[in-house]
Give the backbone structure.
Amino acid sequence: MTDKNGHLHAEDGAAIDDVDLSAYLDGELDPAARQRVAAAIEGSGLVARRAELFGGVDRAVARYADAMAAAALPARLCVRRMAAERRARRTRRMATLAAALALILVGAGGGWLGHGLFHRQSFAVRHFVEAATAAYQVYSVEIRHPVEVAREDRGHMVAWLSKRIDHRLPAPSLDAEGFRLVGGRLLPTRRGGAAAQVMYEDAEGRRVTLYAARNDSGARQAIRFFKADFSDAETAYWFEPEIGYALTGTVDRETLLKLANAILEGSDGA
Amino acid sequence: MTDFLADVEAAIPSLRRYALTLTRDVDAADDLVQDCLERALDKRRLWRPQGAVRAWLFAILHNRFVSDRRRDSRRGPHGPLDGAAEPAAVDDPVAAVALSEVGRALDALSPEQRAALLLVAVEGLTYAEAAAALGVPVGTVMSRIARARRSLSRALGEGPRLAQVK
């Protein structure tokens, strides 16, 4: 019989509720309780039927779950590839850091090399850094809607933007450098591609933006500086074989370089 | 560390099965698993080999699920369940009908009940592991599973429908 509490009664009158029965089926009862439920199943057709019913439910759910997952795993869920990409990034980052250091040394000796080299850069590179500066110009002054996804949803923001730009986006904490994550947004590139903009700000409300988009040239380049004629902001930019970065802000170059290095170090997400 | 990767790799089909059955949305499920794997690689140094990697991964995945759901609820409701993922075609048409009924019955459960039942009954976690993954006491897991089985029994009935998917 089932009483008003949903308890099934074995022949000896001991109540076996769904929790007991359920835990019994999952092998989670202590020996005494296990024995009690086993005896109830043995002694009562009702309890036995309910146990059989619960077993049927489990089998149905398992069949359903297996059928849902029958399709092959998509390539993006390959953890070995993810791990290999991280190792490769670490190696590339060491190279970029070494190159950045060399630039600083040159800079200390005879002025910034990067600035002088800019006119030799291709149109595509110029467009890239100008687009980054323009995006900084437009969004860094926003009070109410500086970003589409705020820092509270950092995990989602990184996953979403990484997916759109088809590359893992670094959005490391720059707290140690005194800049706090504001959030990020998606932007179009000139050729209809996707670019990501991640914004940070310091305690005085000074903002910097990290702009990232695919680097179709495949060429690597260490950190260089650029200043667009339409803005007061400076940009530090660098390229990895798959992706280009531009860090823009109305701050001095030392600050930009410090932040750029922190991003390079932190882009592993560790 | 190679063992770690092998353990993670071995768990991926289970993680995906769980995410798919929990969300019934292929893109959302794959996002969830990808996110979980990235987090696991981020945190691999924090993982201590005494526990099962699998249970640890389910805990990471569940945390993401909860925070995504919190975000989505702030953004307002999703569209209708028309786009819900359906199980892949099964050879036996009778079984396929029964499976879509199982899907509807699972939808009627609360996500908390669904999660607890799937972790234990499908993925084989112990109550203690499921409790750790879901961040609730063992007693809560126990009653959620019982309630889930009770409402599924009611929805699927005792008769021929369950018999079809045995």
Observations:
- Helices of chain A lie at 18-25, 31-43, 45-68, 79-110, 113-117, 123-139, 154-165, 253-266.
- The longest helix of chain A spans residues 79-110.
- The longest strand of chain A covers residues 179-188.
